[in-house]
């Protein structure tokens, strides 16, 4: 897929991070929610990106930081009101992603009926792996994603368990907001989300494809 910018470094210039919530039934259950009838999504700013070699910074207001491992879909060409049948033509590739969540803050936001930005959009809340070209993953719905904290397995799930498929998500989201080249869709997290502390090490991966490691540090601001 031809691009005027290097999609292999989409995190340096991509505009939007669109995150899909509760897209695995078991995760919805562990969060005390019912599986959604239609996709739930929210946004992170591009400043949320962080790469292996830099730390995940826990916000100063957060006392319960959670990990959520997810498959990310990198958009390769503009998508507006795209039909499901054509949706995969707009995919350039994939990445492993973490949706880091200030869970205590999120719970307070929910109680007050407030947006989740404080809980989901802080700097370094979206760690991403290297870019994986579309051709290297023939079927993104046949992957196993996993996450360990300090060597202990916390999350492991099959992307075949997604409630809403990738073509459905692209079609649904693109009816509401235009997806641009370099944008990223986080497709939801399997069960097993949990808390991490300062100096913990997260290791996460897509089985037989790639992995990444990042450490948790308290915010310096």
From TrEMBL:
<feature type="domain" description="Fumarylacetoacetase-like C-terminal">
    <location>
        <begin position="17"/>
        <end position="214"/>
    </location>
</feature>
<dbReference type="GO" id="GO:0005739">
    <property type="term" value="C:mitochondrion"/>
</dbReference>
<dbReference type="GO" id="GO:0050163">
    <property type="term" value="F:oxaloacetate tautomerase activity"/>
</dbReference>
<dbReference type="GO" id="GO:0046872">
    <property type="term" value="F:metal ion binding"/>
</dbReference>
<dbReference type="GO" id="GO:0018773">
    <property type="term" value="F:acetylpyruvate hydrolase activity"/>
</dbReference>
<dbReference type="InterPro" id="IPR011234">
    <property type="entry name" value="Fumarylacetoacetase-like_C"/>
</dbReference>
<dbReference type="Pfam" id="PF01557">
    <property type="entry name" value="FAA_hydrolase"/>
</dbReference>
<dbReference type="GO" id="GO:0047621">
    <property type="term" value="F:acylpyruvate hydrolase activity"/>
</dbReference>
<protein>
    <recommendedName>
        <fullName>Oxaloacetate tautomerase FAHD1, mitochondrial</fullName>
        <ecNumber>3.7.1.5</ecNumber>
        <ecNumber>4.1.1.112</ecNumber>
        <ecNumber>5.3.2.2</ecNumber>
    </recommendedName>
</protein>
<dbReference type="GO" id="GO:0019752">
    <property type="term" value="P:carboxylic acid metabolic process"/>
</dbReference>
<dbReference type="GO" id="GO:0008948">
    <property type="term" value="F:oxaloacetate decarboxylase activity"/>
</dbReference>
<dbReference type="InterPro" id="IPR036663">
    <property type="entry name" value="Fumarylacetoacetase_C_sf"/>
</dbReference>
<comment type="similarity">
    <text>Belongs to the FAH family.</text>
</comment>
<keyword id="KW-0479">Metal-binding</keyword>
